[in-house]
Write a structure and sequence with these properties.
The structure holds 2 protein chains of 2 kinds. By secondary structure, chain A is mostly helical. Chain A has one domain: Ribonucleotide Reductase, subunit A (Orthogonal Bundle), CATH 1.10.620.20. Chain A is about 75% helix and about 0% strand. Chain A has 11 helices and no strands. Chain B is mostly helical. Chain B has a single domain, classed as Ribonucleotide Reductase, subunit A (Orthogonal Bundle), CATH 1.10.620. A two-stranded antiparallel sheet of chain B has the order 1-2. The chains are: A mainly alpha, B mainly alpha. Chains A and B meet through helix 2, helix 3 and helix 4 of A and helix 2, strand 1, helix 4 and helix 5 of B.
């Protein structure tokens, strides 16, 4: 598709950051903007990586560990898919619905590429393997997210999904990327680009809402206390699967704390 | 089922939709295409186009709510991922038809009041029936209502509009052609996925068939209102503009009266329903005529 910032062949391209706030939101929450963003890094890839990227076979304990990690990524992405789709239904305006629809397809893609990677590692029945290896904390997190959707609690669901879960995934995937085999690293690098966009939406949405409704900040500050232990347990479990030394686990929680601080929720 | 669903993966969607027929488009049409001047300059034709486009926006908003709601109800991961692509397709349709309202001169601040003013109450009843099934977490009824009835209706409506606009308003026709390609995929998924579910849950057939009959009634009532309300044909005659003589299912759209157009559209959609429902093991129910 053509760049969304050049509306016709004769008009000059528009720099999104020069737009006024409402036009900025209209632009960055659009399908057109999403496509422009993902086309740059998904073009020419198949299941999240370039076809020519060399596979470095993982064996023994290393393979087992990677399968365990990928199974838990699938649980997280499946939770994100169910939550993002639920958020489309309860979103308060058209732009948010459209942005969240792009997030739905991103989360579905992440689930698909991780399932495909499990297949490449020789896992025949991925769903059975995921059920066997899913960490209890991740399942508890998923269950809490779905409760928020069921209760149509927009602010809490956006915080739990687009701030807490997305920060968690972002930091874990980035860390994993540093040590992963070439194919997994490529898959993760493209997922990370999507997560960055989702986190931006979450912070922007909550930040704007808190400016007009300060009571929302107070409520989410309390909610944050409730889910903090879930975030930390999930992080600890995932770090254990990845083989991250316990001393480094605190560092992994930093991004989540930074997002929380930016929103005035600490 | 796994093999059939692999054709509906996100990878396939990326290759066949955004990286294929949407390539080099902006809001679904060529970057240098604009709305037909005649439509913009003539107030009667402009208002008629706004009313028609509002109906498309209302239908697509319903499809967006339904497809996103179905993800949580889907019994398998493959269906969830297909519905993720459908959710984004529907969001894109909401976006491009909303953009058409802006292109027709609707101010952004007046969008919701314009939608409320022109939204057809019968179309809203049609949407409510479908969304009630999703609220009740009924996946089988939801997919039939969404991917067979709503999408089947949209497919034929868009085809008729595309035929009528191909010559006179290429920008709108091009916008429609991408949505037609999407709807074809959605209907295909509905037919392929739901057949096995109907076989597994034969007890659901009476309820789903009742829903099809009721949704079809509200659809016919919407068509009836739309063709009664249109002033475009009289206005084109008044200003001496020729209509396009393109043919839709054997009818010359340049000669047909609004009643004849309504009849050919209703007949086409209902025949398609009958064929598609038969393929998935459901008995088509003839709706009452409004």
């Amino acid at each position: 598709m053509s760049t969304p910032t050049s509306k016709t062949a004769t008009e000059s391209p528009v720099e999104v950051h020069d737009l006024d706030p409402s036009e900025f939101l209209e632009e960055v929450h659009s399908f057109e903007f999403w496509f422009q963003a993902v086309e740059g890094y998904l073009s020419g890839t198949s299941h999240g990586h370039r076809p020519e990227t060399a596979e470095r076979p993982r064996v023994g304990e290393e393979r087992e560990r990677l399968i365990g990690v990928l199974c838990n990524y699938c649980v997280a992405e499946s939770a994100a898919l169910d939550t993002a789709s639920g958020l489309v239904t309860i979103a308060p305006n058209r732009q948010s619905k459209i942005f969240l629809s792009t997030q739905v397809v991103d989360e579905g893609r992440h689930l698909e590429v991780f399932l495909h990677r499990l297949g490449e590692l020789g896992v025949g029945d991925a769903e059975a393997e995921i059920a066997k290896r899913a960490s209890p904390s991740m399942l508890a997190f998923k269950s809490r997210l779905l409760q928020l959707i069921e209760g149509k609690d927009w602010d809490s669901a956006i915080f739990a999904q687009n701030v807490a879960l997305e920060s968690l995934e972002f930091v874990v995937f980035r860390r994993h990327c540093e040590t992963a085999d070439p194919v997994t690293a490529e898959v993760l690098a493209r997922v990370i680009k999507d997560e960055r966009r989702h986190m931006g939406f979450g912070e922007n949405e909550l930040g704007r809402r808190f400016r007009t409704d300060p009571t929302g900040r107070v409520r989410i500050r309390e909610f944050r206390k409730e889910i903090d232990h879930l975030v930390h347990e999930t992080l600890k479990d995932t770090a254990r699967h990845l083989g991250v030394p316990s001393g480094d686990q605190e560092e992994l929680g930093r991004l989540y704390r930074e997002s929380v601080e930016r929103l005035g929720l600490s | 089922m796994a093999d059939f669903l692999s054709a509906y993966s996100i990878q396939s969607w990326l290759e066949s939709c955004p990286q294929s027929y949407l390539e080099d488009t902006v809001y679904g049409h060529g970057a240098d295409e604009g709305e037909a001047e005649l439509v913009i300059e003539n107030e009667v034709l402009r208002e008629d186009s706004i009313r028609t486009t509002v109906a498309l926006v209302v239908g697509e908003r319903c499809a967006l709510s339904a497809s996103s709601g179905l993800i949580n109800l889907a019994p398998d991961e493959g269906s969830k991922r297909f519905l993720a692509t459908q959710t984004l397709d529907e969001a894109r349709h909401v976006e491009i038809f909303t953009q058409r309202l802006f292109d027709l001169g609707v101010k952004k601040d007046n969008l919701e009041t314009t939608v409320q003013r022109y939204a057809n109450p019968n179309l809203i009843k049609f949407a409510e029936l479908l969304l009630e099934k999703i609220d009740n977490k009924d996946f089988v009824a939801g997919v039939v209502g969404q991917n067979i009835v709503l999408e089947g209706m949209a497919f034929s409506v868009f085809e008729m509009m595309h035929t009528a606009n191909a010559e006179m308003n290429p920008k709108f026709a091009h916008t429609l052609s991408g949505t037609i390609a999407d709807e074809r995929r959605h209907v295909g998924f509905g037919e392929n996925r739901i057949g096995s579910l109907i076989q597994e849950h034969p007890e659901k057939k009476p309820e789903v068939e009742k829903m099809q009959k009721e949704m079809s009634y509200w659809m016919l009532a919407t068509f009836s209102d739309a063709f009664k309300q249109t002033q475009a044909i009289d206005e084109l005659d008044r200003i001496g503009e020729q209509r396009s003589h393109a043919r839709f299912h054997g009818t010359d759209l340049g000669l047909a009266s609004p009643e004849e157009m309504e009849a050919v559209l209703a007949d086409t959609v209902l025949k398609e329903f009958k064929t598609r429902l038969g393929r998935i093991g459901l008995d088509y129910q003839t709706p009452s005529r409004p």
